[in-house]
């Protein structure tokens, strides 16, 4: 399964194809390592003994040979954890990637945001069928956009019809070209970001179909704040991070750095398929993402989040069922079969149904999926925005398992 919509947000078509041509430019040798370590947070997970995910490690190594600087993956099966690592965290120093690194999870943030709003609903603070106008009066107006006709649910399942703000030509010039080397330090208020999308007419009437739009999730973050009277970051911490013990997950606000051990992030900063100049874009102001993609985390914490979510440890049954109620993917990009509330679903090549999300920031791509019962999950991160392999996630569920593994 290739990187889906969320992981293309900053990079457009560049993530659709791995560029073997840049192998020479990325001179770091493959540093393939299999690590068996406890989970990053919460109750200790037992090390997973032996090379039980050979096919997954080969997929990681192949991606680096094809041009990615480095890639990490963690597989969690029950209380057992396997970490696979390949390539480098820093192309200049050759420092290898390591399993405990933090990275920008980008649109995987949406699953956290949806969980917070569903938890607020469970507490009786709002209804998913409330209109956007009820909580953000007058914000969504003009150019045919009308918050009185859009519900919170439609923001979360991308059926609002609101224009994707990242499709705006001026926005793309600032954030998808070399101009980003300067604009990445700008602080953006959520209203400014939303305004970019609202400057355009909606793509369709609310509820007509599913079509991915980051604009809706910026509004969702704003609604979290209006409902609670707290910051969006505090609500995520109190309702998700603390209950699940996600000690290595942060909401950076307007900071430009990544705390703790982390890889450098690399981008061509060009939508030209022939571009070869690679830029270090590790520093970037997180306010430019807000509720649509600002969270920083680790493979271990993201796996723990998915497990807690899907096993019912985070939300009541009614809210979890609503989260998994899927609309068919009718958008031009994706790869997932259906999209619920901050959660997508698809089938692997061997027929296993998985739930999760992908995410892409300038300089990186990630994906996290799990079986419906939460027993097995995998989170992957690549520190480049042009390279991905559908075989990494697929191999976890369909190939390379050890004797007796199911």
Automatic annotation (TrEMBL):
InterPro entries reported for this sequence: AmpC-like, Beta-lactam-related, Beta-lactam/transpept-like
Pfam families, sorted: Beta-lactamase
The keyword NADP appears for this protein: no
Signal keyword on record: yes
Signal peptide: 1-36
Alphabetical UniProt keywords: Hydrolase, Signal
Single annotated GO MF: hydrolase activity
Annotated Beta-lactamase-related domain residues: 58-384
Protein name: Serine hydrolase
Originating species: Streptomyces yaizuensis
